[in-house]
Amino acid sequence: MKSLRLVKCRIKDSNYADKFLYLKSLKLSQNSLQEFKGQWPSLIDLDLSENKLVDFNATCPSLKYLNLRENEFEKFPLIICKSSDLTDLDISFNRIEIIPNEIKNLRNLERFEVPSNRLTDIDPVLLLFKLTYLNVSNNLVMKIPDGISNLQDLKNFSANYNQLTKLPEELCKLERTSFSVNGNRKLLHIPDGILALYPSRLNFHLTPAWTRWCFMNNLDLLDSNKKETLLALIEAVDNNQD
Questions:
Q1: Containing H/E element for 46?
Q2: pTM (two decimals)
Q3: Is 189 helix (H, G, I), strand (E, B) or coil?
Q4: Closest CA to 120 of 70, 75, 179, 163
Q5: Quick one: pLDDT band at residue 238, thresholds 50, 70, 90?
Q6: How far apart are CA 92 and CA 50, in angstroms?
Q7: Does position 100 have pLDDT exceeding 60, yes or no?
Q8: 3-class DSSP assignment, residue 45
Q9: pLDDT digits over 133-157, tens only?
Q10: Which of 23, 25, 73, 144 stands 20 to 30 A from 217 (CA)?
Q11: How many Å apart are CA 225 and CA 108, to the nearest integer?
């Protein structure tokens, strides 16, 4: 057997790893698991979303896709960092406060979903040079770290609904990246270099009403031509939303 799907089966334990040494795909979402352990040498795809997990202590050396969404983790499971082939990790909707520095061992990670946790900083993600997608929305992040421009493969970065107060100028260096920072109500200043990217860089998704207010408070930084361009952009966004 290479694939096993047991969804909504009221499963409470995972004491059967030795019976599935050659299993490549395992989906146990929407059960009652509180821990997941064992040796899973062949497992590539693991979905444990919507359980009650507080502990993940499984060895999965071949793992590439791991979904731990909507569990009860308070700490990032360090053993995950030993799965160096991992490319896709979703650990959203938990209660994690810290991303460990050991995450640097996930050198092949391309997609990292960690929204709706309790993070205050995201500095360790700077060690994930292959990231193409990063979602840290709905946390308590106060600052986008210096060095974010080193993630040159990043295509999508979402930091909606955090505690950001400013955006670093070096975001301009990520020429292929789309940004979303909606709902950061403490964000009262946007650097002139970022504002100047409009309208050629429409991949900055700064569209809610609060952002209009933020733009209006930065208009004094712009010359008359840029000011007209920015106001035209705001009007175009409004028309598109209608």
A1: strand 45-47
A2: 0.83
A3: strand
A4: 163
A5: low
A6: 11
A7: yes
A8: strand
A9: 999 999 999 999 999 999 999 999 9
A10: 144
A11: 44
More confident residue, 241 or 67: 67
Residues of each domain in the chain carrying CATH 3.80.10.10: 3-191
| Inter-residue contact 36 to 53 (CB < 8 Å) | yes
194 exposure class (CB count in 10 Å sphere: 0-12, 13-18, 19+):
buried
Task: For residue 212, give both structure tokens.
Answer: 């209009």
DSSP letter, residue 107: T
Tokens of 44: 């590539």
Predicted confidence at residue 104, as pLDDT, reads 96
Our CA angle for 155, 111, 99, nearest 5°, is 110
Identify which has the larger pLDDT, 198 or 51.
51
Residue 84's identity, in one-letter code, is S
- The token pair at 128 is 């994930």
**Helix axes 209-216 and 224-241, enclosed angle (nearest 10):** 170
**Looking at domain 3-191, what is its CATH homologous superfamily?**
Ribonuclease Inhibitor (3.80.10.10)
User: Which residues on adjacent β-strands are paired with residue 36?
Assistant: 56
106 vs 33: CA distance, rounded Å? 25
pLDDT-derived band of residue 37, with 50, 70 and 90 as boundaries? Answer: very high
CA diameter of the chain = 71
The pLDDT score that the predictor gives to residue 205 is 47
